[in-house]
Amino acid sequence: MALPGLRGAEHLGFTVPDLEEAHRFFVDVIGCTHVYTLPAMRRDDDWMREHLNVDPRSVVREIRFYRCGFGPNFEVFEYEPADDQRPQPRNSDLGGHHVAFYVDDLDVAVAALEAAGVRMLGAPTASRNASEGQRWVYFLSPWGMQFELVSYPHGKQYEQEAEVRLWHPARPGE
């Protein structure tokens, strides 16, 4: 059974160690727009465990919301560090993840990130097989979270015969 009324991804939420650093990265380097902020959240009951699956005494210092082009919004949390805080997961770890930004010109976007001092993980790579036509490259935020730039301005190979295409940020209504 499909989820009734599904429209798409509304936001991605993640935790950062320093919200001011993250704000500068998302606004000044990536180009997102800060939309609004929520204040600290602290509870003396089990609400945090029941609703967020964290220690009930966890404290959210602040939450900020960003709009990034046509993609899903970002909900960015800064918690007070917990005693059992885990390190940043790699893609190969359970819960490993990355956020990919579609750009019109990969080489121009890479040059902008490099000029901003962002750590790139290798050089742009051309995809093969069903993803042929796409180029991509990973990079790291100042706190070590993995991001990706991806571009396929002329489409991907799979689209030649596909009945359903993946959503494309440059053509959000298709």
UniProtKB/TrEMBL annotation:
<dbReference type="InterPro" id="IPR029068">
    <property type="entry name" value="Glyas_Bleomycin-R_OHBP_Dase"/>
</dbReference>
<dbReference type="InterPro" id="IPR051785">
    <property type="entry name" value="MMCE/EMCE_epimerase"/>
</dbReference>
<dbReference type="Pfam" id="PF13669">
    <property type="entry name" value="Glyoxalase_4"/>
</dbReference>
<feature type="domain" description="VOC">
    <location>
        <begin position="8"/>
        <end position="152"/>
    </location>
</feature>
<keyword id="KW-0479">Metal-binding</keyword>
<protein>
    <submittedName>
        <fullName>VOC family protein</fullName>
    </submittedName>
</protein>
<dbReference type="InterPro" id="IPR037523">
    <property type="entry name" value="VOC_core"/>
</dbReference>
